Amino acid sequence: MSDSIFKPKNFEGSYYTLPSNWVKPINLETTMNTPIKYLEVGTLYGGSLLSFAQTFGLHHESKLFCIDPWIDYPEYPEYKGEQEKIYQTFLKNVENSEHKDKITIMRGFSHDEMPKLYNNFFDIIYVDANHENQTYIYRDAVLSFMKLKKGGVLIFDDYGGCYINVTQAVNKFLHDYRKLLLVNREKNGDPKRIGFQVFVKKL
After folding, report:
1. What is the 3-state secondary structure (H, E, C) of 91-107?
2. What are 103-117's pLDDT values in tens digits?
3. Residue 147 belongs to what H/E stretch?
4. Is the distance from CB of 123 to CB of 38 less than 8 angstroms?
């Protein structure tokens, strides 16, 4: 299967990882022909969200949610003063896609927005949010697990390599919830980056 089908169409801005490596742990053909409820925590320009929409989330009844504050905060000084521009570009990307009617945008911090969502609701949750604070990372993991259906898949980005905070926080979560999940690791979809994505199935 060509990775080109995962490149978001009519897209502006940058993206780091697309879900092209998800086809091994998640059956693409089955998923794209089934209504899927998907949540993404950490969105930036929307590259992975819109890539998911045109592949795994292709069914017209799929529902895609994304959470991101799009504001300046100390952990990411490289985006200081750029977040409003990024957010407006993201909105343009959604508008120019063929999937805007499936997408619900929740602008805010994950610990404020996730509690507004139903528990045991989502088929797939992708966490690619704050990588610098272990407390935030672990909290995102626990909240996401609550929102995930039994049999659903929770995906953590940037595990291993130089991502020490992510690795330690995810390891704590995997240990604390070890009786409630199955774990698989896949190499990050971007060959230029060192790290893995961790796939957790809720039992």
Report:
1. HHHHHHCCCHHHEEEEE
2. 999 999 999 999 999
3. helix 134-147
4. yes
pLDDT at residue 76 tops 70:
no
Residue 53 half-sphere exposure, CB side, CA atoms within 13 Å? 25
- CA separation for the pair 15, 189 (Å, rounded): 12
Task: Report the C-alpha gap between 121 and 37 in whole angstroms.
Answer: 7
Indicate the burial class of 55 (C-beta count within 10 angstroms; 0-12, 13-18, 19 or more). buried
Question: pLDDT per residue over 43-68, tens digit each?
Answer: 999 999 999 999 999 999 999 999 99
Which tens digits make up the pLDDT trace of 122-166?
999 999 988 888 999 999 999 999 999 999 999 999 888 778 999
Is residue 124 within 8 Å of residue 26, measured between CB atoms? yes
Residues 49 and 67 sit within 8 Å (Cβ to Cβ) = no
Residue 42 confidence (pLDDT): 95
Shortest CA distance to 66 belongs to which of 38, 36, 35? Answer: 38
**Residues 6 or more apart from 201 whose CB is under 8 A from it?**
151, 152, 153, 154, 181, 182, 183, 184
Instruction: Extract the tokens encoding 3.
Output: 């990775």
For residue 120, what are the contacts with CB-CB under 8 A and spacing of at least 6? 146, 147, 148, 149, 150
CATH class, 3-202 region: alpha beta
